[in-house]
Amino acid sequence: MHEFEYLRADEVGRAVATVAGDPGASYLAGGTTQLDLMKDGVLAPDRLVDITRLPLGGIACDGDMLHVGAVTTMEELAADRTVAERLPFLRQALLLGASVQLRNMATIGGNLLQRTRCRYFRDPAVSACNKRLRGSGCAAVHGAARMHAILGASQHCIAVHASDMAVPLVALDAVVRLLGRHGERSVPLTEFYLLPGDTPDVENVLSRGELITAVEIPLLAPETRSTYLKVRDRASYEFALTSAAVALRLDGGVIGEARVALGGVGTVPWRAPAAEAVLRGAPAGEEAFTAAAEAAVVDPFTVEGTAFKVELAKRTLVRALRTVTAGAP
Ligand code: SF4
Q1: What is the pTM (predicted TM-score) of this model?
Q2: Which UniProt keywords apply (predicted)?
Q3: CA dihedral 214, 220, 225, 229 (to 10 degrees)
């Protein structure tokens, strides 16, 4: 592994100044992705700034908003009572997203910034990867690509966004709080990630040294039903082939509010506003569910290995909608 200097940050502003002023520096939180990539030679920072002792943890409820510090662990968030009661599909996504050992290490900010699982990205022996080296090509487009994206993809990159947690978060209109050398700002999670286009190495709107400090999550109304359905090749320790996060409010069998997002198929966590528009005001049933699924998966970019995901993504959403409405009066 490339040698690096380890620094434990003792103040948020100094940590930001350090990373912003040094192109070789990176933040270190739980390290569950970053250390793997360093051992594999994909990442080679000269300096790691450990932010886990900074006062950026904790969960606080303020009215209908949950404030989650960036170094809160996945397990802490999954165990939170408000999450269990008001954001059940987020809890499901957290529990399905990693083993308990990983959940105890991995942070919420780190989860949002986790790197792709694309095998070509993670293998420095593969030279063609635009995400590692812009302009080098994309080995996945002509290679084995079963786990790759069909939405938001381009011929330059079809890497899928791997986070389960981010899928219900985009459905909820969560907002990330950022701190950089020029101050604080808030960015909706739906605008935080960037599509690959011809620059897949640029994955989000963060500027050099900018740090996620917190995530603001609107709570669902108590009467809202929600579910997170994850389809994968085996029942645990596996990433999603497809997933669907659905939250619906029903009023006498008619759908009022609808929130829908897909995972495992997008280069970014994939909000599906067209599907939500189909569902809103429709009687809860197969006709609306099927129409919503058709609206959710439009203009897919497929390669040989990923073509099956078009149908699977639609069926995943239909099944999630059936599940969330089952037994409704
Ligand atoms: Fe690299 Fe993206 Fe192609 Fe994977 S899909 S090889 S990450 S450019």
Answers
A1: 0.97
A2: Oxidoreductase
A3: -10
Q: Give the model confidence (pLDDT) of 64-86 as tens digits.
A: 999 999 999 999 999 999 999 99
Any atom of ligand 1 within 6 Å of the Cβ of 131: yes
Cα 143 from Cα 298, distance rounded (Å):
24
At residue 319, what are phi and psi to the nearest 5 degrees? -65, -40
* Statement: residue 259 has pLDDT above 90: yes
Residue 256: pLDDT band by 50, 70, 90 thresholds? very high
CB of 240 within 6 A of ligand 1: the answer is no
Integer CA distances (angstroms), 116 to 106, 255, 278, in order: 15, 35, 31
Q: Cα(293) to centroid of ligand 1, in Å? A: 27
120 lines ligand 1 (CB under 6 A): yes
Span 49-74, mean pLDDT?
97
Measured CA distances, 1 to 18, 38, 44 (Å): 22, 6, 8
- 157 touches ligand 1 (CB under 6 Å): yes
Q: Which domains does the chain have, with CATH numbers?
A: 225-325 (3.30.390.50)
* Tokens representing residue 322 in the block: 């059936």
Residue among 109, 59, 299 nearest 213 (CA): 109
